[in-house]
Amino acid sequence: MSKEFDVLVIGGGPGGYVAAIRAAQLGFKTACAESNPYADPKGEPRLGGTCLNVGCIPSKALLHTSHLFEEAGHGFADQGISVGTPKIDVGKMLARKSGIVDQLTGGIKGLFKKNKVTFLPGHGSFVKQAAGGWEVKVGAETVVAKNVIVATGSKARHLPGIPVDNKIIVDNVGALDFDAVPKKLAVIGAGVIGLELGSVWRRLGAEVTVLEALPDFLAAADQDVAKEALKLLTKQGLKINLGVQIGEVKTAKKGVTIAYTDKSGAAQKLEADRLIVSVGRVPNTDGLNAGAVGLKLNERGMIEVDGHCRTNLPGVWAVGDVVRGPMLAHKAMEEAVAVAETIAGQAGHINFDTIPYVIYTSPEIAWVGKTEQQLKAEGVAYKAGKIPFAFNGRALGIGATDGFVKILADAATDRVLGVHIIGAGASDLVAEGVVAIEFSAAAEDLARICHAHPTLSEVLHEAALATDKRPLHA
């Protein structure tokens, strides 16, 4: 007899494990299926998805280590600290990164046990509609669930003619595990992954060249932020080439050669020890047996859902990277909670206008809400307040004066429409912008809130004042 559940979640990444935990908290008999072992030494399925295993978490660990290395080599002297020439033990750095991953992925198992979620190791795929809901094959067994939440995530998009072996030519997985610092590193794609991982290895000593097909840098960000980011990252040593067309890529035992044309149309050739391909991600929907049950996918392979993450099939839901919207772990988690609560008859809520975006370069880049170019295109009358970190006492004290905070507010109502930050701590500071937009705050509200002194948050306070042309310290 098949096991029966109220809720079965297919996929154990941020969207999946959060959906399972919240559903169990709401009293549902819940199971979560996961088949990917990632780097598990025993080859057993691991929870946490791309984010915890080969994405957000390990990349941030390497970014922190490489930041400390760069500070030791270039920043300490300005503060009167002499340490000599720093050396990096790549093996120890990777071991630390793996330890953090092991701790967090193992922690999810503990959360499952605490919340009475059944973990089903194995690949989940639809079989047919059944009397009790949906029959789903998980590994060698078949289970039945009244509700199925698909949270199978995404995988790196690869380019035709450029075979990824995760040794010489790598995607995000291989770029986290180089056994040594490459002398020359090429990166195709100047998006979040390319810039973050390019920054890691650049700080550790690699000569990094980034090749981007688009003519604009960070086109999704506010143009002021993108312009500042390009200037600062170039100053740090990243060679960023925009508007290129990739040609033939040849590999050898010890390296790779990339032929491309630059923005002027001239033929170029780049030789490197390693190549990172970071050109976006594609949804993991090909193993769901979607066609057999009529689960509707769009032309990009994403599952079609409504505003509440319902699919075209009764009792089948989908969240995270397999549906529309940004491929962000925190977006997946919000959808997961909303779906579980909707199944329970509650009012699950997802506000796509208040999802923050973060790039963990140095300085960090973060934003929420509308960019200035979006407001112009929509014909919205707005006012802007922009304050550099260079005027902030805390920023000066920690030696992090690059960047600025920019707040966009409605010209008539003063309602905050966008908050854009490039600077130290941007990933945390943007949360104030999220709260402001979520609660329909005015720039005046932020300007009237007392911010602790001395803190980096005061720059956001000054930017709010600046929308009314009355900053106090800049």
TrEMBL record:
<keyword id="KW-0676">Redox-active center</keyword>
<dbReference type="GO" id="GO:0004148">
    <property type="term" value="F:dihydrolipoyl dehydrogenase (NADH) activity"/>
</dbReference>
<dbReference type="GO" id="GO:0006103">
    <property type="term" value="P:2-oxoglutarate metabolic process"/>
</dbReference>
<dbReference type="GO" id="GO:0050660">
    <property type="term" value="F:flavin adenine dinucleotide binding"/>
</dbReference>
<keyword id="KW-0520">NAD</keyword>
<keyword id="KW-0285">Flavoprotein</keyword>
<dbReference type="InterPro" id="IPR036188">
    <property type="entry name" value="FAD/NAD-bd_sf"/>
</dbReference>
<feature type="binding site">
    <location>
        <begin position="152"/>
        <end position="154"/>
    </location>
    <ligand>
        <name>FAD</name>
    </ligand>
</feature>
<feature type="binding site">
    <location>
        <position position="60"/>
    </location>
    <ligand>
        <name>FAD</name>
    </ligand>
</feature>
<feature type="domain" description="FAD/NAD(P)-binding">
    <location>
        <begin position="5"/>
        <end position="336"/>
    </location>
</feature>
<dbReference type="Pfam" id="PF07992">
    <property type="entry name" value="Pyr_redox_2"/>
</dbReference>
<feature type="disulfide bond" description="Redox-active">
    <location>
        <begin position="51"/>
        <end position="56"/>
    </location>
</feature>
<dbReference type="InterPro" id="IPR050151">
    <property type="entry name" value="Class-I_Pyr_Nuc-Dis_Oxidored"/>
</dbReference>
<feature type="binding site">
    <location>
        <begin position="189"/>
        <end position="196"/>
    </location>
    <ligand>
        <name>NAD(+)</name>
    </ligand>
</feature>
<comment type="similarity">
    <text>Belongs to the class-I pyridine nucleotide-disulfide oxidoreductase family.</text>
</comment>
<feature type="binding site">
    <location>
        <position position="280"/>
    </location>
    <ligand>
        <name>NAD(+)</name>
    </ligand>
</feature>
<feature type="active site" description="Proton acceptor">
    <location>
        <position position="453"/>
    </location>
</feature>
<keyword id="KW-0274">FAD</keyword>
<feature type="binding site">
    <location>
        <position position="212"/>
    </location>
    <ligand>
        <name>NAD(+)</name>
    </ligand>
</feature>
<dbReference type="InterPro" id="IPR016156">
    <property type="entry name" value="FAD/NAD-linked_Rdtase_dimer_sf"/>
</dbReference>
<dbReference type="InterPro" id="IPR004099">
    <property type="entry name" value="Pyr_nucl-diS_OxRdtase_dimer"/>
</dbReference>
<protein>
    <recommendedName>
        <fullName>Dihydrolipoyl dehydrogenase</fullName>
        <ecNumber>1.8.1.4</ecNumber>
    </recommendedName>
</protein>
<feature type="binding site">
    <location>
        <position position="124"/>
    </location>
    <ligand>
        <name>FAD</name>
    </ligand>
</feature>
<keyword id="KW-0560">Oxidoreductase</keyword>
<dbReference type="GO" id="GO:0005737">
    <property type="term" value="C:cytoplasm"/>
</dbReference>
<dbReference type="InterPro" id="IPR023753">
    <property type="entry name" value="FAD/NAD-binding_dom"/>
</dbReference>
<feature type="binding site">
    <location>
        <position position="321"/>
    </location>
    <ligand>
        <name>FAD</name>
    </ligand>
</feature>
<dbReference type="InterPro" id="IPR001100">
    <property type="entry name" value="Pyr_nuc-diS_OxRdtase"/>
</dbReference>
<dbReference type="Pfam" id="PF02852">
    <property type="entry name" value="Pyr_redox_dim"/>
</dbReference>
<dbReference type="InterPro" id="IPR012999">
    <property type="entry name" value="Pyr_OxRdtase_I_AS"/>
</dbReference>
<dbReference type="InterPro" id="IPR006258">
    <property type="entry name" value="Lipoamide_DH"/>
</dbReference>
<feature type="binding site">
    <location>
        <begin position="327"/>
        <end position="330"/>
    </location>
    <ligand>
        <name>FAD</name>
    </ligand>
</feature>
<keyword id="KW-1015">Disulfide bond</keyword>
<keyword id="KW-0963">Cytoplasm</keyword>
<keyword id="KW-0547">Nucleotide-binding</keyword>
<feature type="domain" description="Pyridine nucleotide-disulphide oxidoreductase dimerisation">
    <location>
        <begin position="355"/>
        <end position="464"/>
    </location>
</feature>
